[in-house]
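Posting for a labmate who doesn't have an account.
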Amino acid sequence: MPMQTYPYVWNYLPLVLQILVALGLACGMVGVSFLIGKHKNSRTKASTYESGMDPIGDARGRFSVRFYMVGMLFILFDVEAVFMLPWAVIFRRLPAITGSAMFGFYEMLVYLGFVAVGLFYVWKKGILDWANDKGDL
């Protein structure tokens, strides 16, 4: 019994169907919401709303440098946590990989020591103390 052949493009049929179903579902939900939803335009509804506060002043106001410092510190410590994940995944296999029973553990202790020293430095510099923020540093 010979195998029936069909064009290679037909392999993409499930993908195309999934995309069409997703688009149909999205358009259907937006359309039903438009048909069923309430449409009451008011001054309050049309006003600018940001973080629960009425906008006052210029939108291009200055931010404290401390704001950016905390953002960079978050990224820094977040990346350090990401570096710990692969170590945790292969922790049980580290003795076979390194040839020493505790080498991987001690290496992580050194790494966490550097992280702790960095956190202590940031804490002592007062970067994490928002109560004493006097604007730009």
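Reply:
Got it, the structure tokens are right above this. Residues 65-89 form the longest helix (25 residues).
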